[in-house]
Amino acid sequence: MMDPQHIKQLIENGLPDCRAQVEGDGRHFQAVIVSSAFEAKSPLARHRLVYSVLEEHIHSDQLHALSMRTLTPQQWEQGQT
To answer: Quick one: CATH architecture of 4-76?
Structure first.
């Protein structure tokens, strides 16, 4: 089982200029992730970036499901999705 704080740390350490909020029950998590790495990237490309950071935990099935909102800093400031 994974802890939301641990996932937050992994994401924030793996993506530049990143802030993350993560909640979950140990296997299923929801995250809001804000990073400048998402600039000019499609939603799919943004999710792939996050999954690449968490790949080891996903493949080992420690992290079963992660739903996420991925935003640029500008989108976060404007309150857009």
So the answer is: 2-Layer Sandwich (3.30)
Q: For tokens 């400031």, what's the residue?
A: 77
Ramachandran angles phi, psi of 9, nearest 5°: -60, -45
Q: How far is CA 1 from CA 7, 10, 43, 48, in A?
A: 11, 15, 27, 22
In the chain, domain spans? 4-76
Model confidence, pTM? 0.90
**Beta strands, E only, 1-81:** 18-24, 28-35, 65-71
Tell me the average pLDDT across 47-68: 91
Say which residues have a Cβ less than 8 Å from residue 67's Cβ, sequence separation at least 6.
29, 30, 31
